Amino acid sequence: MVAVNATATPSAPTLTAADRCDRCRAQAFVRVVLSSGDLLFCAHHAKAYEDKLKATAVDWVDETSSLQS
To answer: Could you tell me which residue ranges the DUF7455 domain spans (predicted)?
Structure first.
C-alpha cells in the first residue's frame, strides 16, 4: 500500500454584504489571499492595488461581476 499525502487548499468563502473594504469600508467585492492573511477591497481599491498585489497574491477572488451596471 502506498501512502499519498495531499494538501488541499481551501477555497476562499464567497464575499457577503457584511464584508468591507480594508481601505474605505465600502462593500468588498475582491478578496486577496496572501501567505500572511486575506485583504478585502471594494472594486475601486482592488483596481488601484491590483498590479502590486497580484505579484504576491496566493489567490485573487474577484466578485465584481455581481455589481449592477
So the answer is: 15-66
Contacts of 61 (CB under 8 A, 6+ apart): 12, 15, 30, 31, 32, 33
**Average pLDDT of every residue of the chain:** 86
- Name the residue ranges covered by the structural domains of the chain: 16-69
Nearest to 40 by CA among 24, 58, 56, 52: 24
